[in-house]
């Protein structure tokens, strides 16, 4: 946990977003987007702080540093982030070996066999906090407390109780630094001014064509 926290505090998310995604993106600090009622801005829980990162590594017994492999699937947000993350972690004594891999290898070795040190991938499924409650999932997170919160949220009889439990679950994820949520990727769309009818807030990869007009 201390090492994971150290990794989070070694990366300047604002600069990463500028470098890897042209500034388009939002720091969130956990696995919840601002559109969910249980969202809480946890981006300042483990803010960028090189000195604190080094102190955490020392407390974890890695004052002399350590080495990780970072598996990068062939997609821009991952490959664009690799060099920045490697350089950031090098400043606190963590050596990162960048490993570009094909999607087939990522699915087989990383996702299925859970054979990896670090990787970058975007999760876009809606209301998917329950995946962290599955210890067999490739995150490998096994917290009975978290699992209990997700169960309570699923069986809650009121929206207030559901929101309360999911908010607690999101904070627990952030406290445990299960992952480092680099940024929330926006759904960017580009169209000519002559095209109208494109949904402004679509969450899918397809359009209903009969609503789109040209001219």
Describe the structure.
- With 215 residues, the protein is mainly alpha-helical.
- It has one domain (2-142, 177-214): Dipeptide-binding Protein, Domain 3 (Dipeptide-binding Protein, domain 3, Roll).
- Helix content is 38%, strand content 9%.
- The chain is built from seven helices and five strands; from the N terminus they run H-H-H-E-H-E-H-E-H-H-E-E.
- A three-stranded parallel beta sheet has the order 2-1-3, with helices on one face. It has a two-stranded antiparallel sheet with strand order 4-5.
- Helix 1 (2-9) runs antiparallel to helix 3.
- The longest helix is centred in the C-terminal third of the chain and has 18 residues, at 159-176.
- The chain is globular and about 65 Å long.
- The mean pLDDT is 95.
């Amino acid at each position: 946990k201390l090492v994971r926290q150290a990794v989070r505090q070694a990366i300047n998310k604002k600069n990463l977003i500028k470098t890897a995604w042209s500034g388009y993106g939002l720091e969130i600090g956990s696995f919840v987007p601002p559109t969910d009622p249980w969202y809480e801005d946890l981006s300042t829980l483990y803010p960028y702080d090189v000195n604190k990162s080094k102190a955490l590594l020392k407390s974890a017994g890695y004052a002399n540093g350590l080495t990780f492999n970072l598996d990068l699937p062939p997609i821009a947000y991952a490959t664009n982030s690799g060099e920045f993350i490697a350089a950031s972690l090098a400043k606190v004594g963590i050596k990162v070996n960048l490993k570009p891999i094909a999607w087939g290898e990522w699915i087989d070795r990383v996702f299925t066999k859970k054979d990896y040190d670090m990787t970058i991938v975007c999760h876009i499924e809606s209301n998917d906090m329950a995946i962290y409650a599955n210890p067999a999932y490739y995150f490998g997170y096994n917290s009975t407390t978290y699992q209990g919160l997700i169960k309570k949220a699923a069986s809650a009889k009121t929206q207030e109780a559901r929101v309360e439990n999911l908010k607690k679950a999101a904070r627990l994820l952030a406290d445990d630094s299960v992952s480092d949520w680099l940024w929330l990727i926006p759904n960017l769309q580009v169209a000519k001014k002559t095209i109208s009818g494109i949904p402004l807030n679509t969450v899918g990869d397809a359009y209903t064509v009969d609503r789109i007009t040209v001219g």
